[in-house]
Structure formats: C-alpha cells, structure tokens
Amino acid sequence: MCGIAGIIHRKGASNIGFEMTNMLQALKHRGPDSTGFAIYGQPEAGEYVLRFKVAEQEELAQGHHFHAVIAERRAQVDALMAEMGVDVTELDEATEYAYRYQIRYDGDLKKFADRLENIEGAEILSIGNALELIKDLGDATVVSGQYGLGDFTGTHGIGHTRMATESDVDIRSAHPYWAYPYNDIAVVHNGQITNYWLMRRKLEREGQRFVSNCDSELLAVYTATNLEKGISLEESLTKSIDEIDGVFTYLVTTKDQLGMAKDTMAAKPMVLYESDDVVALASEEVSIRALIPHEIDTYDPYDEEVRVWQV
Amino acid sequence: MAGMNQETTSHEMGMHTQALKGRDIKTMFSLSEEGTYAYPYAQDVDFNKRTEIDVAEIEATEVNSQIRALMKEGYGTIVLKNPGAKHSLCVGILNRLNLIIEGSLGYFGCGLNDGPNVRVSGRVGWSFAENMMAGVVIVEKNAGSTFGAAIRGGDLVCRGSVGSRTGIDQKGGSILVGGDTGAFTGFMMQRGRMVICGNAGKNLGDSMYDGTIYVGGEIQDLGVDAVPEDLNDMDKAWLTRKLSLYEMLPDKGVDHFTKIVAGKQLWNYDNLEPHEKKIIL
Fold this sequence. Notes:
The complex is a heterodimer. By secondary structure, chain A is α+β, with helices and mostly antiparallel strands. Chain A has helices spanning 16-25, 65-84, 109-117, 140-146, 196-205, 215-228, 233-243, 285-289, and strands at residues 3-9, 34-40, 48-53, 87-93, 98-104, 123-128, 131-137, 156-162, 177-178, 186-193, 246-253, 257-262, 271-274, 278-282, 306-310.
C-alpha cells in the first residue's frame, strides 16, 4: 500500500524534520516496514552533504564479528576519500552503519559515487547541497529519533512509509530514492510500475545504474535522466504519465521545488492542501491533519494531474 | 461408523463445538411477523434526544461503539466533534438517526449505512458512504475517490468536487455532486441516478449496465458503451425537484444538462443456457 507525504514552505524555513516525522507517523498504518525522509536544509556554499551506509540493519544480527566488518568497510571509504582529495569538513555517525559526511569536492561526482559504491556493502543514500536522505527500518518516530531529525530546519521535504510488496524489507529497497548521480533530487512513490523492466533496460542502455529491484527507483533515475537532458521538472512529470505504465502517484523534490504526478487511472490516493505559506500533500488527509489540526480545505488531485511548487 | 451420518461423524471428529442454527428465509420475510423488516440491531431512537461526542482522542472503533450505545439509550440526534479525518467513522448504522459531523472524515466514512441522515461539514476521503442503502447523506466540502461506491438507495450529496470513480458499481439511489468529478465516474453503474453539476472526467459511464447520469458541465469523454440520450420532460422534472431539495439548482435551470445512459451493446447475458449458446456459436 505505502504512504507518501510532502511539504513545502513558501515563505522561509521551518522545522521540517519534526513536521515530516509527524506526517509520516500518521501514515504508519499504510506501511510499517521502513520509513524514509528526503529533507532539504540550509546549504553551506560549496559543500555537499553525503549520506551513505556500509551495511544493512539486519546484517548486524550475523554476529559480533560483523562490527569489525563495518569498521573495515568504513575505513576503506575514508581511505578512498583521502585518495580522491575529498575534504571532510564535518562528520556524524547516525548509526553504526550509516553516516553523514559534509564534504568539499571539486572532482567528478559520478566517478566518486561509483568508486565509493565499489566498496562491499557501501551504498550512497544521497549527495546534495541541501538534500539529506535518511531511510531505515521502523516507523517514523523510530527513524527520526535514531537519526536526530527532530530539530532539522529546512524548506521542503518528502517522505515515505513502506509496505514491502515486490522487494525485500531492507534499507536498499526503502524510499526515498536519490537520483544518482545528480545531487539534490529525490523521489517517493506509491503504486506499481508495470513496464519497469522495459524502462529499466532502456535507461541502463543509456548508462544509468540501479541499486535495487524496487520499481520506484525507476522514477528517480527516469526523472534525473530527463533533468540532465534539460527537461524541466514539470515536463518530466507530464512525460512520465505517458511513458510509465502502471498505477502511481509520486512526489519529486529538487533543491528548490516539489512536484507531484498522478497516473492516468488516478488509482493511488493523494490529498492536497494549499495555502499562501505552505503546501502539504499526503496519501491520506489524516497525515496533513497531524500538522494542521484545525479544519482545512483539501482536495484530491485528478488523474494525469501534474503540479510543481517553488520554495 | 455404521449408523452415523455426515453431521454426527463431523461432530465425533471434533469439527464442531455446537450445532449450527439460523433463521431460514421464510421466517425472515414472513409478512405476518412483526418486526420482519427491522434489523436485529436496529434501535428505536427519539430525534429530539440530542447529545454530542468529542472524538478527538478516541479511536474509530470506540467512536462507533459509543454511537451504538447512545442509540440504544434512545438518542436520535448525535453530534460528532473533531473527527480529525479519522477513517471508518459512523459505519453500519441500520436505523433512522440524525448524525451531524462537525469536521472532516477519512476513508470509508459512513459506509454500509441503512437509514441515517448524515451531514458532514468538512471533507470526506475515499469510499465515503460505500454500500449505503437508505437515508440522506450530505457533504458540504469535497470528497475523495470512489464516492458512493455500490450504493443501493438513498440520496448522497456532495456540494464540492469529488475524485475518480464516483458511484462505481452504483446499484440504486441518487448521487448528486455540486462540482466536478474525476475519471471513470459511473464505472459499471447498474441502476440509479447520478447528477454532476460541474464537469466530468474521462471515461464517463464506462461499461455501465443501466442507470442514468446527468452532467451539467463538460464531459471530457464517454466510456465504453455510454451514450447520450435526449433529456425528456420527466428527466427535467426529476432534476429540478431533486436539485431544489438540496438547494443545488443552477440559476439557469436544468435544460443544459446532458443525459448519459447505457448503450447496452456490452450486455452479454440472455436467456440461453450454456449448451444452447454453444449451438448458436
């Protein structure tokens, strides 16, 4: 089933971490397997935020020796960064297996990402100037607490509560998806994509890489490919309704935009609240009401509806 | 095992803990029996007896239990405050009741009802009033998709706009929408009437078996086997009466409405037995 939610503040930053946690916790019944956040903070000029993991949560159950494996993998990542001239300005251990590095790097981001992911178990969750992508097993409160999102300040964000259907319950298959290797783009999706393999092979032939077998990752790669070609976010969303088969409602965020698209059958839900200050969207109104408890006017966007909001 | 029939054998094997009993159809619908047409759990309520419940901190199942308990005490007018878009509120009410909901409901609100008059001051989520059998339900703001799915009777009104697949599988009653509707409105409609005062999305009336859809605005396109028909005097009279009843009659009247019915080209059933069909084919 899955639940998706998004929020964008049009007049300055807010406590986006707290807001997204509340919205996603209200959607827990739509998917308790994992929770993910893609939130956009206040960027430091010339710096990237790199979020990556070197193991899956359940791998810790393999035994005590695995702690040493994790330390070894991380040491390899640190060595690679030193070798490639990546300057780490700030370092934060969110969990034993997932980290947040603030870095300065002038080289080829794709080359860096590819080399980092060549290390066994290493997977980049996101790279961005403003984007911070956090995903792990558990509900929104658990993940938010674990990664200290309660006081995160930012302008916009999207999130996802996952009910695993066609792929595993692990961080790799959790949303949001970062649009490798382009910074600051993230996608959450509710639905099923029926021409997944066809589209995936097409994009792979164009040189794109996929890390999971989750159909939602396709939307992230698809959007990134379009944006790279100079297509606007709105055009990409509109194009996807024709080119992607299946039932889907998905949200995309860039550094300063939040977009949504709904498939031609309008089979997956989305409730929208729009005011001068804030736009909030979610699979169910109960999620928006976790943020705005008083009575509000909301509506369901129609089939093939595409909307993009600017910070 | 000699002398044992199937029932005693299954009891011997421990497959039953008690004998199954129930009323047969003849008993259920005996005209002479008093209360034949009342549900076993229907309550005798007094509309002048009014009470309020604040449901802000109460789970949906508890809210529904409280409504039942109040009806048992004879309350005929119940006001629900702060519903907060919770799901599955006010379902399975099988008698006359005035229910006033001050706020918005989530999914599956007011489903499986037979009789209550409901007024919702906010918005409602997906599958609102699904399988409603009788009564009047009015929503003041917008509604989500599959609004009034499979309703069998009563009047279901939304003054705002509704999502997709409105009245899917409608089997009776009337659905009235003040604004627009999304795609596949009236999908597989079987009976009853639907009025859309605004515009209708694509595939209107797709695969409808029967029933009538009236649209006041523009129709994006018609679904398979949905065809327009001329609006006759009876249609106009019905529309005027129904829309006036809920204060939704447009200033310009009802002459501009388009009437959509089933073309009945998709009907694939007849009086033939399967072996007779084979002969024809």
